[in-house]
Amino acid sequence: MGYLSEDLSPEIIERLEQVDILFTPAGGKPFIDQKKAAVLIKQIEPHIAIPSFYKVANLKRPADDLKKFLKEFNHDVVSEEKLTIKKKDLSALKVAKIICLKV
Fold first, then answer.
1. Residues 37, 28: Cα–Cα separation, whole Å
2. ∠24-34-37 over CA atoms, to 5°?
3. For the residues of 35-94, what is the DSSP string, one character each?
4. Which strands sit side by side in the sheet containing 21-25, from one edge to the other?
5. Rounded Cα distance, 18 and 12, in Å
6. With 60 as the cut, is the pLDDT of residue 29 above it?
7. Domain 10-101 is classified in which CATH homologous superfamily?
8. Suppose 57 and one of 41, 63, 68, 73 were both cysteines; which one would form an S-S bond, judging by CB atoms 3.0 to 4.6 Å apart?
9. In this predicted model, what pLDDT tens digit does every residue of 49-103 receive, in sequence order?
10. What is the C-alpha separation between 90 and 2, in angstroms, rounded?
11. Where are the domains of the chain?
12. 19 burial class (0-12, 13-18, 19+ CB within 10 angstroms)?
């Protein structure tokens, strides 16, 4: 989603519903806020969502803006140093998997 700073139109959301992996801003201003980013992920329903554009407090603990984003999801969030994706693994996912890449 890059530098997304405003809501998307229903037409654009509809076109994105076939997306397997979605990178979305998760740090709030100047981008969309965390709640809207979570709603967008739930609307688009990608197999994997990767938060981006958030502050890092230190290497072991996420900053408050990322915590605020992750709080919007009821399921586990995975933290990965390296992400390897196979098409066959994507189709097995029932709910969007939220993956935070370690810095």
1. 9
2. 40
3. HHHHHHHHHH--SEEEEES--BSSSSSB-HHHHHHHTT-SS-EEEESS----HHHHHT-S
4. 21-25, 48-52, 97-101, 77-80
5. 11
6. yes
7. Ribonuclease Z/Hydroxyacylglutathione hydrolase-like (3.60.15.10)
8. 63
9. 888 877 665 545 556 777 888 888 766 677 888 888 888 878 777 777 888 877 6
10. 22
11. 10-101
12. middle
Residue 26: pLDDT band with limits 50, 70, 90:
confident
Say how many C-beta atoms besides its own lie within 10 A of residue 61's C-beta: 9
Q: How confident is the model at residue 27 (pLDDT cuts 50, 70, 90)?
A: confident
Closest CA to 54 of 73, 74, 32: 32
* 52: nearest Cα among 43, 42, 65: 65
